[in-house]
Write a structure and sequence with these properties.
2 copies of one chain form a homodimer.
Chain A lengths: L1 H7 L18 E2 L2 H6 L10 E4 L3 E7 L7 E2 L3 E5 L19 H12 L3 E7 L10 E17 L5 E9 L8 H6 L13 E7 L2 H9 L11 E3 L2 E3 L1 E4 L16 E4 L1 H8 L3 E3 L4 E4 L4 E5 L10 H10 L2 H5 L6
Parallel strand pairs in A: 3-6
Antiparallel strand pairs in A: 1-7, 2-3, 4-5, 5-8, 6-7, 7-8, 10-11, 12-13, 14-15, 15-16
């Protein structure tokens, strides 16, 4: 059956996004059939993709002890560092191959196909089947110490199923040039809260970035973003209080979220890409940044730079 | 009935977001009752809000000849410039009061309550009733020449109804500090496409911003955003081709979208906030920017600066 699908597949499918002809919810009896359908091409690896182009697909198998599957939100564990016999974590995971691919997906906003291993409840020991569960985007990536005591890479993936792209219908009626309509689901959403706390912090700094002092101007005033140091919600569980928020320009917000910027307890800022100290976090009366949240950020967004192939760039 | 609602309203309601106790879809017999319920406070104006804090609510009455109501997407016309007797547009609209408030909502991402005037199909001449249709965000703002021949301000509002904030459930379980949970719907989504065209343009420039040359670095590579010069979809109908895309850093993407940057046909860049020429758009082999799209952008995102109270800043 999957062979029919392959034959019908338009030549424009480039590996990312929905596989033409494969609807969400379709089941595959094993990894070979799943691979033949090009939904998830490797037979063993949980992540399909490259550091350069990003991840095409992942399999959520429940095989990693640190995975969390909340349905529309998945906290996924990177690959590597497991003993091939016991499947136990025996060393640190590195930011290479599939792990790097998922970070690249975060930068590009390209959607990642999610496949879940489904085990029959009364036959837990039998081989699972595999269900294609649709497209997700990588919202966050960081490292942690797993239950095993070794470093693991983690990713927060959010379902795109309920997300209706505001302009999609209209776009599909337009000439799309050299583009491929199946790629229109690919988006980055830099989500910036505008809570009372966020507004308080932005006003305290008069919308000037706490890293560079830049203040973006719009016709009706200034624009700044409120960056949570320790993310809200699962799994970071940071509080929505002023001590956990920075007033940043969009560039430094992006760099902070990727761990390119490290902020020390004394508020000196280091650019991890160059190793250079680039200044000190600007302060404002009434806004005290909580050092515990800065430490959390340093502890979970720093390792990429030590293992990045790009650091010599 | 509305009085009961007012009595039950928590003291924390600050005018923005859902009014506690008022469900989406509730109807109000006239503007006075609507105002009493605090869903839309002014009795005549279509926009409630201030340039400083943003818009609380709008009424979509169909009274402006240039409004477009697509359900989840509304292209809304600003206020002013109409003859009070004939309701015809007789002069240019200015970027002040409600019109400026809607631009501020775009910068803060705060949700705007949308009320629609509902006319009985068989009694078109009777007074309409007013239905609260939920929260929208302002995705885009620009100016145009209306059917009347005068300048009008326009806003693209997108419903937040189908948008499930990824972290909302988790956040609601967390201590929210000084924040008000009803404000969690307030978000800015800077949506950046990662289509094949976008990737082509970003790679052509090796992820360096075409305005400043800055290249943001992440652990797995570089980060840039593809900015459509003429927006895709209704009502701008720009094409998704490389000539309509710029490779920008997040800061210059934000400034370009607000019209702070003007790019001339000879690719010189002017900062409208200061009036200073700040350089020339960087070019890359194989990527030719289409002057027609630059002209469209200049024609629709420039007027705010001429009328902004902030330009002397």
């Amino acid at each position: 059956m999957q062979e029919e699908v392959l034959t019908a597949m338009p030549i424009t499918f480039d590996g990312y996004g929905n596989v033409p002809g494969i609807e969400v919810g379709r089941s595959f009896v094993n990894r070979q059939v799943l691979a033949n359908a090009k939904v998830h091409r490797p037979l063993q690896a949980g992540i399909c993709g490259t550091a350069e182009l990003g991840a095409e697909s992942i399999v959520v198998s429940g095989g990693y002890e640190d995975d969390e599957d909340h349905g529309d939100v998945i906290v996924y564990t990177g690959q590597g560092g497991r003993d091939s016999d016991t499947q136990r974590q025996v060393k640190d995971q590195e930011l290479t191959r599939g792990n790097a691919a998922l970070v690249t997906s975060q930068t590009t906003g390209a959607p990642v196909r999610v496949v879940r291993a489904v085990r029959h409840p009364s036959k837990r020991s039998a081989s699972p089947s595999y269900r294609y569960d649709g497209l997700f985007r990588v919202e966050d990536s960081w490292h942690d110490v797993g239950r095993s005591g070794f470093r693991i890479w983690r990713y927060r993936l959010v379902s795109l199923a309920d997300y209706v792209p505001p302009r999609q219908e209209a776009v599909l009626q337009e000439p799309v040039g050299r583009d491929n309509p199946t790629r229109l689901e690919a988006r980055v959403q830099r989500i910036v809260r505008s809570t009372r706390v966020a507004n308080f912090v932005k006003r305290a700094h008069d919308f000037a970035c706490q890293v560079c002092g830049n203040r973006l101007r719009t016709p009706t005033g200034a624009y700044a973003e409120a960056a949570h140091i320790r993310g809200l919600g699962q799994p970071h569980n940071g509080p929505d209080v002023a001590g956990n928020v920075l007033c940043l320009c969009p560039n430094h917000h992006t760099l902070f979220d990727f761990g390119t910027l490290a902020i020390a307890d004394d508020l000196t800022i280091t650019d991890r890409a160059t190793g250079a100290e680039i200044g000190r976090l600007r302060e404002a009366p009434g806004h005290q940044v909580d050092q515990a949240h800065l430490a959390y950020h340093r502890d979970h967004y720093s390792e990429g730079w030590k293992h990045s192939p790009d650091t010599s760039e």
